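Contributing new complexes? Match this layout with iron/sulfur cluster.
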Amino acid sequence: MTLLSKCAFGWPASWWKNLYAINLTKGCEFDCGYCWAKDMAKRFPNMRPSSGEWDKPELASFCRDYKTDSFTALTEVLSTTTSPLTILLSATCDPYQDIARPLTQIALREVLAYRKWGGHPHHALILTKSPDVVKDLSLLKELDAEVGFTIVPSSPLGKAPTDAERLDALYSLQGFGIRTFISFEPWWPGVDVDALVEIMYEAWVVRDRRTRFILGSLNKNGRPVNPDFYRREWPKLKEWLDAQGLVEEQGQGTGNYWLKPELKKLLVAQRRKNVAASAIGGQMKGKIDGFLFTTSRAEILLTFPGGDGRRRELRISLVPHRTLTEADILEAIKGEMENLELIHKRLSIVKELLGTEVDLPDFLL
Ligand code: SF4
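Output block (do not edit by hand):
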């Protein structure tokens, strides 16, 4: 394991540029039921503690020779970067689990010392589940660090402090002027919007309007588990966010919340589906200028008036994980209708409703 790892979290670069993580341990004593790092460690042996047990963490090899007052390896790395970094503690472990905390403090002090010395103004970002982070308040203030808590209501319990303890710590840091964020990663399927709204209301409306939020789905093999849950609940949450004036981050750095890519893709597809549905009269079955377009889990059914005046029907099977384009539809119905000009006209409507870059399984299922 290298000391600084490029972080591919799907977090917005407009919030945190040049995001790199320091992962101080292999394994993590909190042992959360949904831990993605633990899953990754099953595939990548160099992420596993030598005991083979995730909840018995050990220091990463680059930490083993640290001294109580310096972290030489980190200073060396910091001095060789060509631009300021956002340094995240941590991505694949918790920086405030017992074994990691002394090193986290040393790492933060090194970043601070480097800045005071006149080096790049690296930004320190903390992501934790431990209220112990509050004990480093003065250091965090001096660093102007940003602190995030992962909050996952109703998730299977691991050994991490409870959501209530984390939120108390968050509110406490907010009270001392520390900028904070909450990562609802994953937004646990089954947790209704009210639970999230209650937390967001307290953190943002009541306490600190600089607070930012990250929302991510529970994924399996890179795709959301129970997509219908997110499709059903998201409009309610969006309505609340809009009513409060919270804005989605769009790349300018000024947004209040960020949807992780897997969730965003699912919801964008849903928005397109809603547009199509309402354009067809509020249902996924209706008449478009003499052209019926219906969907099912496995196929699109097109019905249309043939040149001889009789109705024709065409079923187009959907190929999972494949993008359906206008050309695909055209190819499928070619020869089925005499009036190609009419088909083109109708297809332009279908195209507008569908969008051509829509991944059909997300869009239609
Ligand atoms: S705190 Fe993070 S790294 Fe540790 S077990 Fe939980 S999810 Fe995994």
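Reviewers usually confirm one structural detail per submission. For this one: The chain has two domains: 5-270, 282-364.
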